[in-house]
Amino acid sequence: MAGGAVGAAARYGVTLLLTPLVARTGLPLAVLGINVLGSFLLGLTLARVGRGLWPEAARLAFGTGVLGAFTTFSTFSVEVDGLLMRGAGGAAVLYALLSVGLGVLAAVLGRELGARL
What membrane topology is annotated for this entry (predicted)? Predict the structure, then answer.
């Protein structure tokens, strides 16, 4: 529960920090960055826990708690819908493809890094 509070506060802080960029571009880049970073960190965490290098509590506290609240699929979904509602279908498709593609790539890179450290 404490990890969730930390993750939610971190997401809010990053969103505030990137608000000017989002306003300039009209694209939900804050959530894209948050979700890609969260995917990388979860891949790293799972690799370290899976190899017995970090305790299972790290997966629960950091992976489920902090990263579960830091990343957000629901906001991603609402932002894709918002782009569609504004008539920005191309941007919506690009955002969805980048979110999924970069998220998976980041998770793989995190897992690979975690296995090599």
Answer: Multi-pass membrane protein
In this predicted model, what pLDDT tens digit does every residue of 29-79 receive, in sequence order? 999 999 999 999 999 999 999 999 999 999 999 999 999 999 999 999 999
| pTM for this prediction | 0.93
Where do the domains of the chain lie?
2-116
Q: Are 103 and 76 in contact (CB under 8 A)?
A: no
Annotation-wise, does 64 bind a ligand?
A: no
Integer CA distances (angstroms), 63 to 3, 56, 83, 91, in order: 9, 10, 30, 30
Alpha-helical runs (H) found in the chain: 2-25, 29-50, 56-58, 68-70, 73-85, 89-116
Cβ burial, residue 95 (10 Å; 0-12/13-18/19+): buried
Nearest CA to 91 out of 32, 40, 4, 13 is that of 32
13 is in an annotated binding site: no
Strand, helix or coil at 5? helix
Q: What is the pLDDT of residue 89?
A: 97
